[in-house]
Amino acid sequence: MRFANRALTTIILSFGLITPSVAQEQGEESDAKFTTEQLDFFESKIRPLLVEHCYNCHSSEGQGTRGGLAVDTREGLQVGGESGPAVVPGNLEESLLWNAVNHQDLRMPPRNKLPPQSIADIRQWIEMGAPDPRSGRVAPVNSQVSDEDIEKGREFWSFKSPQVIAPKTLQQFADWPKSDIDRYVAAGFEQQQLTPSPDTPAALLLRRIYFDLVGLPPLPSDVAAFEKDFLESQDKAIEYVVDELLNSPQFGERWGRHWLDIARYAESTGKEFDSTFPHAWRYRDYVIDSFQKDKPYNKFVQEQVAGDLLPAKTDQQWQENLIATGFLAIGPKALLEQNPRQFQADLIDEQIDTVTRVVLGVSVACARCHDHKFDPIRQTDYYALAGIFQSTETLYGGVRTQRNRQPSGLIALPIDDHNPNDQPIAPNELARLRERVRELEMEQMQARRMAFMGNNNSANRNSTNPRDSKNDRDGKPPETNNNPARAFINQAIYDQQIAAIKARISTVDEQGKPLTLCMGVQDRERISNARLLVRGEIDRQAQEVQRGFVKLLSPQAVELSTNSSGRLELARWLSDPSNPLTARVMVNRIWQHLIGKPLVSEPDNFGMSGPGTKHQALLDYLAIKFMEDGWSVKKSIRSIVLSRVYRLSSEVQKEDFEKDPENEYLARGNRKRLDAEALRDSMLTISGQIDLKRPRGSVISNIGFAVIGPNGPVAPVLPALSQNTSSKAGDDAPAMMMEEQARRTFRLGNNQSNPMEAPLYYRSVYLPIARNLLPRSLDVFDFAEPSMVVTIREQSSTADQALYLLNNDFVMSQSDSIARRIFREREKPAERVKLLFALMFSREPTQEELQLSMNFLRDAAELAEGRNSAENTFSAWSQLCQSLMATAEFRWLN
Amino acid sequence: MSIQFPTLGRREMLLRSSAGFGYLAFAGLAGSVRCDEVSSNPLREKAPHFEPRAKRVIFLCMQGGPSHVDTFDYKPDLKAGEGKSRRPGNSRLLPSPWTFKQSGKSGLWISETLPEISKMADELCLIRSMHCDQPIHPRAMTQMHTGTAQFVRPSLGAWTLYGLGTGNESLPGYIALNPPPASTQNFGSAFLPAIYQGTQVGKPQLRGAQRFNGNGGSEEQLPDLNNSRLSSEQQRRQLKFIQSMNRKQLGAQKSSDGAETTGIEGVIESYELAFRMQDTLPEMMDLSKESRATLDSYGIGSGETDSFGRQCLLARRFAEAGVRFIELTHGNWDHHTQLRTQLPTKCREIDKPIAGLLRDLKVRGMLKDTLVIWGGEFGRTPDAQNGDGRDHNNKGYTTWMAGGGVKGGFSYGETDEVGYEAVVDKCHIHDWHATILHLLGLDHKRLTYRYAGRDFRLTDVHGNVVSSILT
Question: What is the pLDDT of residue A79?
């Protein structure tokens, strides 16, 4: 365990495991400090030795860099591979090369030790400071982007601060605007000779406002009240409803989810080994609460990038700030990656990509391998940021196993609020668990040795005739003790058992009390600059790059503290009013969710290759207003929803369509699709089954550490502790393990034991988000791919969606509940149909639709095969409810 | 003017895919565009970049990494090196316990473990110099499917469907049969529109439980394919009602709009396809009408070959029905131990079914424009692991193709004398992808999609078409 040196205590857990120590750069060392003799010693004694004995497996020339170690450059030796630095100049004990050539923990070369003289030479060489002239061959990579290019780039509209550009004086539409926003837009109508659509009728408008602000449909009574108020004063009616909704708890859930799309929120690692994040939900709740409280956006950004470094007056604030940094930790992780340096480089890349695209609306990650192709962003800009993240430790949890090679710790929070299912462990039990880990590790080591010996011995023994194998002939399992294959399997099972216990132990403190943990980041103890990597390849290091920001966007030179990562400065720079992009990018997103299309149509590409915007004056107005209003998201939303542009009908006027088919000038409303959450929440709202309370934690936090399989999560199994293991474990362990595993494996299908598929009635934003196993109700309707920053969701119409709406059990059970509701609330069939249309579409059925519905009910009841006519009638009504939910109208927001 | 689909941007694509006849009617009014400019259906068949040699793909994916030196890569020198350690740190060489012999007129060397496939040797084009960048299963599998293990990218099948559309409106254009666990990404469309992703048919299988039942319940085939309550007549009525509501909505909007890019047509079409799929898919999966002789030729009904035989026959049926890309998975080729007993079992499970498939395609005249691909995510080491096993080897392994435009009875590339790594005419997985697209009439450099401000392609900045294997 490690204690972060803060006024308030943060504990980073490493589960008593060796966390992958990514070797830090050793800093530039000049050859000048070595004498010619010393360098000659390297050339005559050491280099030939490395070439002869090591290059085959550890260089760019041979079979690659096994274990991540390359010995053909000075940097390669000093940075080292998976196990750590191979050479620490002047320090034999720390130099793994020394360890390996003496066949201590490591054994290199693997078969025969080097001759004593060579070993002596290595000793002498390390002790003299490991002179190695080979670094000079990595030439610094020079950028093709000149200072003039950058200077010129700063003239590009989006890289300059937002400008106040007054809207043009209106002629024809002088009376049309309700607000400044409208004045900007109306200027476009006049210029393009477009006529704006009429305003949307009250009911449809209210529906639009409800879904946009809270993601739920209005009740028929809401519609009636609004229509009444609307007759008196349109503006006041709208204002009243908007303020009411902005303050309702459902607002944060709706708008928090928009942020979670771009924050690639999920509760598992994704990739090939989809391991759960049982504490990710805290970040989800943090985001929702932040939008609910209308946290100033600049503060929101700062907390997510550097909450751990911000001053906090109270434990409550400290807790919130730490959880906020989960933003940097919840991305997808390739836990199977064997090379920790590669893993680290990919992790940093993911962080840079996410932060720059989400906050700045440009991708700096393009510059990982070369200068940015379109924008004057140098490769060194990327590595300036990489240094900041390299000096940051990312904590996302996990337990080391043979498959999970990249676990990390987590952050312990100051206020007790532990995961609901995490139980305390009695101190004596805890001690027994620890003891058991030690025992199992011993046994695993034995099994490993057995398997290893098998590699080298039995190849010969058995190789002549496979059909002679004893194993085959008598059909009995061989003795464990001398069967390498069995030993190979057994040691893998020990691995699982050890992991299971460690996972359990990791949820409690030293006294066995459950810990309150979160994902997030902390500064490393060692702060370092990154080296530029040629073409982004970890084995091709070039010059060291000072930590810093993107030069294009940061005209003033920055001086970052040498005893902190620089994330705090980065966070402040990102959220500074002088940053030309941050406010623009956010108001563009707000506009996108309300109006249906962003002003800059690629919201994460404000750069030179991006589409730009036809509405720069409006965008800048919104951005400046946003900052003036204290970065208030709610105020920005409010001003847009109260504008007249927002009220425009989505019906298309023929002439306008010809002039502006894509509606770039906003002379009409955009039809919007309900997203997966709104669709599901609508069903639950109409059926009356929705549970608007926030669940504590999430399905995944209740499962704890597990791996998501195709049939649901598979939790590691805690082995029985009472068993006398030292003798028994060999043969019985596998069988027991399988049995336990089967019991703990949750399955999909009709039985409801898979917690991921249990019927849940709370809002969709709280459904479990495992990257490789999304809830079907979300997955099928274009849910944001949680492994990517998703700025605009897909809008597909697939057969799978149709099948879901026609046949899914959840949909049918909702239909039943709706049918029961209308039975309760209305007597006459025609009245029931009317209520149904009011609930579903916020409108009355037309005469024709009423007739169509009645006919359907009659036919459906006739065809139904229930036990009596009451059942048949109910079945028909349930089918009608389902059919209406399956219509296009239910999925559209006009 | 024709559709510039290779560079069709996401936004534009969505617009077009949702444009439909409403837009067309309007475009007609405006008199500015021709009808063939706009496709109402993003799955509609599209013209390839050039004359294709293959129209569809059946990809036989061998999960776990089959040992090339025991199947298709004959290494006599391995025998000579028996028991010796080739390189420091490596275990001793394990010669293949099986005999290789020359097969067919072409005389390709194939192991005795695959006697039936050997009989089809003259159809096979072996690529014996495969290599990829990933030494561990899932990542190699992902690279095999999407070109990269590092990022989430569209799969080969999704790119194919994006490039060519599909020929059957009642079936998905890209079908993954019996997909392995945790492989969704391998059939995914990533940033391509979701409509191009693979439809998984058959429940994902757990490791060690390779069972597949082509006649199984429909629930096993696709979620929500069956209605647990309604008869097909009831559902037909229901669908009729839904569609009449949808058409009214469309009509109402048209009458006031004249036109609009509503996307409602897309919904109407999706219900039509779904409803047809409810009928066609179980029918497609129902093998009971196939003749006994056909079933026998695929090894259906006899123990070991039954499961994969069913998949192979289904693949032929889907191919015949116009499905563009069909992928089958056969698992458990990861022979770290018990190579001598397990490898022959695995080979027996696929041998007859695959030979049956090739023969059946040939008889039906479909082999000439169907590209059959066989391969795993990597191969295995020539040296022993655990005495009777082999470790992963991504430096050199074998895949093969047959049919649609590749030379039969042909062997391309070589590994070193014992099979550690590809040394002659190396074929990286990017080259493999480029070649497959080329056979389908698609230029891997032109098949691009704009996402996040950049044009992406399956082969990134790599890939060379292996032209010497083309007919």
Answer: 73
Task: Check if A534 contacts B (Cβ < 8 Å).
Answer: no
Instruction: Indicate the DSSP class of residue A508.
Output: B
pLDDT number for residue A331: 96
Element at B109 (helix H, strand E): strand B108-111
- Indicate the Cα dihedral angle A367, A373, A375, A376, nearest 10°: 70
Amino acid at B231: S
> What is the DSSP secondary structure assignment for residue A180, as one 8-state letter?
H
- The amino acid sitting at B61 is C
Q: Say which of B136, B253, B273 has its CB closest to residue A799.
A: B273
Q: How far is CA B127 from CA A109, B352, B411, in A?
A: 35, 21, 6
- Which residues, in sequence order, are CB contacts of A814 under 8 Å at separation 6+? A683, A684, A686, A687, A689, A881, A882, A885
Contacts of A673 in chain B (CB under 8 A): 263
Average pLDDT, chain A: 86
What residue type is B15 in one-letter code? Answer: L
Report how far residue A324's alpha carbon sits from residue A300's, in angstroms, rounded to the nearest whole number: 8
Q: Which residues of B touch A485 (CB under 8 A)?
A: 337-338, 386-389
List pLDDT tens digits, range A517-528.
Answer: 999 999 999 899
- Please tell me the predicted confidence (pLDDT) of residue B88: 58
The answer to whether A605 faces chain B, any CB pair under 8 Å, is yes
Nearest to A799 among B91, B242, B274 (CB): B274
Please return the burial class of B449, using the count of CB atoms within 10 Å of its CB with bins 0-12, 13-18 and 19+. Answer: buried
What is the C-alpha to C-alpha distance for residues A542 and A522, in angstroms, rounded to an integer?
27
Give the pLDDT of residue B40. 54
CB nearest to A806's CB, from B235, B261, B386: B235
Cβ neighbours of B367 (radius 10 Å): 22
Contacts of A374 in chain B (CB under 8 A): 453
Burial A159-196 (b: 16+ CB within 10 A, else e): beebeeeebeebeebeebbbebbbbbbbbbbbeeebeb
Rounded CA-CA distance A86/A121 in Å is 16
Q: Name residues 119-148 of chain B within 8 A of A (Cβ).
A: 135-139, 141-142
Distance CA A291, CA A328 (A): 19
d(CA B287, CA B284): 7
Which residues, numbered 183 to 242 in chain B, qualify as contacts with chain A under a Cβ-Cβ cut-off of 8 Å?
A: 183-185, 190-191, 193-195, 199, 204, 206, 219, 222-231, 233-235, 237-239, 241-242
Q: Measured between CB atoms, which of A110, A797, A856 is closest to B270?
A: A797
Side-chain half-sphere CA neighbours of B397 within 13 A: 31
Residue type, A473: R
- What local confidence, expressed as pLDDT, does residue A883 receive? 98
Ranges under pLDDT 70 in chain A: 1-32, 60-65, 67-68, 81-83, 135-138, 452-482, 710-711, 716-757
Residue B285 token pair: 């999966």
Pairing status of strand A58-59 against strand A64-65: antiparallel
Give the pLDDT confidence score for residue A446 in this predicted structure: 85
Cis peptide leading into residue A48 (ω within 30°): no
In the predicted model, residues of chain B with pLDDT beneath 50 are 1-39, 204-220, 257-261
> What gap in Å lies between CA B393 and CA B395, rounded to an integer?
6
Give the separation between CA A378 and CA A380, rounded to whole angstroms.
5
What's the confidence (pLDDT) of residue A645?
Answer: 97
- Cα of first residue to Cα of last residue in chain A, in angstroms, is 56
Asked if residue A407 lies in contact with residue A15, where contact means CB atoms within 8 angstroms, the answer is yes
CA A556 – CA A294 distance, rounded (Å) = 31
Comparing CB atoms, the residue among B206, B242, B274 nearest residue A803 is B274
Instruction: For an interface test with A, give the residue of B238, B256, B395 to mutate (most A CBs within 10 A).
Output: B238
